[in-house]
Structures are given as structure tokens and as C-alpha cells.
């Protein structure tokens, strides 16, 4: 199925479909007409020698330098060359594809002033599976992701490197093999290809998609642990959370109740405490806060995906050129920072529940460290060490990046979002979170093996899913394969798929 790009209706799920799963795209007729109309206006202004930023002037601190006609013809090429100044390992293919898609959507709105050949070339590259090699580091997240987007824009001149057919090769050679013409760059084309926070936004879209699925698995694993610890179920009553009013907490409580439906804990057959520790009974409030943060972050990212984040902006219907700072990445940088901190918060809650599973003083009759041979064996004692190390790294990474501005470009660009730092660190926070949750899942499944009462239908499905990946720990064995394999299973949403196959789709709050 081909996604028609109109510049108005892109959702996070569309980004994932194109970037991760290779769905093809096509510019809609209305978008093509808007691009052509805008370009025609720009060409009239160029012919009239109207001074316009980044077209017949330099950029940044050099914006007061007016270029000659001969310089205008060469400026866009040099612009891409000097901005392709990143560093480091290549981004994953899906990240670059998400950024390219975002740039096409921006052009599709018809305010960028570039030739139609520019977005059409990006469309052709996406559909052919040609992905430019782009360094991960170099963007400060204002004036757009200039360094990484410039590496992408090298393809418009048939230059740079790419991944194609499982190989790393020269982009020009790949385009020739795929039959994609090299459009070259004319006035405005280069700046129109790079001026916006498309890499940050693409990464944010992918991370939100994954985080939304991670939070549901966090609820599933929490349900497993709550059942193993003989939780008092009154704090998870939907009515209690509705009286406070936060949508995320309400959704979390309902999901916990659905996963645990059918449990003896709900019928009174199992004796429970009058009141449990915060790490247990605060679960809906804490996970719910992450859910509410996800909802706001999704709204911000989808506005950005469908917005005009460029400079200058050419308004053909009014014959106007507007300059400003729509490229500023802060509207996405701030949600990314908040997302990372919120995931870390829920990971801390996960580790605290794991602690209660392992500590015989807190585990309501479970064997120490979840092993029958405590003393000779250490059980899952060292799994907690690993979880703790991961959480400390998450805490370090949870320092906001959006407040870390360093001036650049002779102080013309004296406040930047540092959104790329936010995107990179949030990616690592989420990676760690998958492992922390995997370790709790291993502990919860082990603990449930020692309980003889009936568990909820969803809890049983989750435990069975864990057991398909990690065997019960009878005797001590190296645990790193269990940790790595279970973390990979969490990343693939194995628990979520197993539980939803059994009880139906869990609720969302975004």
C-alpha cells in the first residue's frame, strides 16, 4: 500500500510504516500543485532581484552579505558541503528514512520554495530503499538539523554514501542502479532540503511509538509482580483513579484490572495486607504520569510532522516571504527530555518492585532471591545489580538537554534546542528501560512459579510468554543470556502480543 503525502495528515504510525517497514510513498496532486505554485512565485522574485535570505544572501551571521548572480548559482552546493560537518557512527536506516519522510511532508505543504524535483527525489530514494549514510552527531537542533540533513542532501547532487541492498556504497552509483535522476541544486533548493528539525522529529516519532508499547508491557509486568507479591487490589479500583481525574492513571488501573481478571487476589481467597508499599500501590499514578506525558509528546510531534518548520517561508497566495525561527527544535526537544525522564521514573518503580521480589523480608513468603537453594545458590541476586546499573545510567541521561544551549555562528544563533542530544539520550534511556523491565519480568515469572493460587488470565499469558524465552532457574547459571534474550523479547513486544491475544487490546490514553 502506498501512502499519499498531502502535508496535512501524517501520524506517528505512518512514520513507522514508512521508516521501519518500508511502505512506499507518493506526493499527492494537491501537494505537487502547491510546490509548483510556490516555486513560480520564488522565481519571479529572483528575476526581480528581490533580496531573500539564503537565496541571494549568505546565511546565519553572513545574512547581510548579498550574493552576485554567479554566486547564487553556486551557493546552494557550497551550503550543503560546509554544513555536512557531522561526526560519529551512522544513524540507523529507519532514522534517516523518518527524516527524509518528514522533509517531503514539509515540502508537500507548498511553502518551501524548492523545485518539485527535490521532494520527488527523496520520494524515489525512499521507495527504492536507498538511505544516505548520516553521522549521528553534529546537530544543535536549531536552524534545523543542518549537519545530518546536509549529508542526506548530498544525494541531490549524486554525492555521499548510502546503504542500498544491504551494502554501503556511493550514492551516485546506487541512484544510477535504481534509475533515479540526479536533480542537482538550483536557487533555494539546498537550504530547503536541510532547514528544519526533521531528524530529531523522526527520532521522536519512532521513540514515542516504541515507548507507547513499552508502557503497556510495563503494566503487564507490574501485574505479574503484584500477583506474585499478593497485592491488596483495592488501590487499582478504577473508581478511585477516576475521582482524581488523570487519564493516564485511569487507563493504567483499567489495564491492570484486565490483566489480573480471574485472579484469586480479586476474590478474597488469598490473604493480603491492609496496605502495600508505594512501589506497589502507586503503580497506576506513576505509570499514568508517563502515559499523560506520552499523550502530550505525541501531540507535539504530530503538530511538528505536519507543520511548516522552514526559513524563509514563501506564502504564494499572499506573494510574501516570511523569515523567522520555525526551524527551532524546542517544541520537540522539551517533550523528548520529559519522555526520557518519565521512562526513567517508571524504570525506577520497576526496580523497586524487583527488590521486593528478591528480598525475603519483603516478598511475603517467597524464597530469598527466588531460589530454593539460597546460600549454595544466589538466584537472581545479581540481576538486580544489572538493573541498578542501567537505572543509574538512565538517571544521568535524564538531565534535560533543552536547557544546555551553547551559542554558535558568531552569536547569531545564540539559543539552540540541543534536541539531538535529547533524541540520542532518550533512545538510550528506552533501550535501558527494555532491559530493566525484562529483568523484572524474569523475576516475576520466577516468583509466580512458587505460588499455588490462581493468577489472572492475562498474567498467565505473560508468564507463559516469559517461559518461552527464559527457563525457570532451578540451579544457578550464567544470567546474561536470559537478560539479553528477554530484553530483545520486550523490544519485540512479545509480552504485549501474548497478553492481547488472550484478553484483547489493552487501553491507551493518547
* Spatial strand sequence of the major β-sheet: 4-6-7
- Give the helix proportion (percent range): 40-55%
CATH superfamily of the largest domain: Fumarase/aspartase (Central domain)
Sheet/helix structural class: mainly alpha
The biggest sheet, with number of strands, parallel, antiparallel or mixed sense and barrel status, is: 3 strands, antiparallel
State the distance separating the first and last CA atoms: 26 Å
Mean pLDDT: 95
Beta-strand content bin: 5-15%
Number of E-state strands: 9
Kindly give the count of domains. Answer: 2
Low-confidence stretches: none
CATH architecture title of the largest domain: Up-down Bundle
CATH structural class of the largest domain? Mainly Alpha
Q: Do you know the CATH topology of the largest domain?
A: Fumarase C, Chain A, domain 2
Instruction: Report Rg.
Output: 26 Å
Q: H/E series, N to C?
A: EHEHHEHHEEHEEHHHHHHHEEHHHHHH
Count of runs of 4 or more consecutive helical residues: 19
What report would you give on this structure?
- The protein is mainly α and 510 residues long.
- The chain has two domains: 2-196, Orthogonal Bundle (Fumarase C, Chain B, domain 1); 203-403 and 411-503, Fumarase C, Chain A, domain 2, CATH 1.20.200.10.
- The chain is 55% helix and 6% strand.
- The protein has helices spanning 12-19, 29-47, 69-83, 93-108, 117-128, 146-153, 171-178, 189-194, 198-228, 238-244, 247-259, 278-281, 283-305, 330-358, 381-397, 419-449, 457-467, 480-491, 494-503; strands at residues 2-5, 24-27, 87-90, 131-132, 135-137, 161-164, 167-170, 313-315, 320-322.
- A three-stranded antiparallel β-sheet has the order 4-6-7.
- The longest helix is centred in the middle third of the chain and has 31 residues, at 198-228.
- The protein is elongated and about 85 Å long.
